[in-house]
Amino acid sequence: MIELKNIYKSFNGTKVLDDANLKIQKGESLVIIGRSGSGKSVLLKHLIGLIAPDSGRVIIDGIDLTKARSKDVRKTRKKFGMLFQGAALFDSLTVFENVGFQLMEYTHKTYEEIKVRVEECLKMVGLKGIEEMKPSELSGGMKKRVGLARAISMSPEILLFDEPTTGLDPIMGDIINDLIRSLHTQLKLTSVTVTHDMKSAFKIADRICMVYEKKIKEIGTPEDILNSTDPVIQQFVSGNSKGPLTENE
């Protein structure tokens, strides 16, 4: 289980998270929604230790990352894979080198073993035969799928997605949604996705939580969120310009 307890975080004196609390059950697909700048991605990066809280606790399977020894933090991080917004591929490396990067750096696998694993991961995301291509030769959707292949290359237990459909056309966005859901089921993962794409949220989530005013405002099943009577959640889900959420938030 993943648990964030009383998380506070500020950047240059500006508070981003204010006593945020969240529990994520093993094996579930949780989606975090909220407006741009609401702290969704900051919350996500606390899970993997890319950002440390000013105060509070980040507990992964009983290990408190804010207090753990360095070797325990490193061991815990190996449970994670992450698809960054924009895929974050290394432009100078081939697709093979991008997907196999962690396998080359952090395992003792032979070249042939890495080659087999890279091919396996690319196949799982619907790509094959592109190992020698460079990121500059790929479409936006292909980059996302290569980034996803890299994220699963180390057989993670927990997969994090930061705005996975941003920059994609609706059809490719839906393909990515299907991949997230199918990999979650096939690999028996715990998945955490940050998005403001409500179509994506409702398709891939077991539960949805909304970040608002630097806290977790509400959490529930997609049906709970869709039928919420809270005016903030109603406005966000419907995408209506009229309501308590203003253009300055």
Characterization of this structure:
With 249 residues, this protein is of the alpha/beta class. It has two domains: 25-50 and 61-79 and 156-249, Rossmann fold (3-Layer(aba) Sandwich), CATH 3.40.50.300; 86-153, no CATH class. It has ten helices and ten strands. The protein has helices at residues 40-48, 70-77, 95-99, 101-106, 111-124, 140-152, 170-186, 198-204, 222-226, 231-238, and strands at 2-11, 14-24, 29-33, 55-60, 63-64, 80-83, 158-162, 190-194, 207-212, 215-220. The two termini are 32 Å apart. The mean pLDDT is 91.
Concise summary:
With 249 residues, the chain is an alpha/beta fold. It contains 10 helices and 10 strands. The strands form 2 sheets. The chain has a 6-stranded mixed beta sheet, sandwiched between helices.
Question: Which terms summarize this structure?
Answer:
37% helix; 249 residues; Rossmann fold
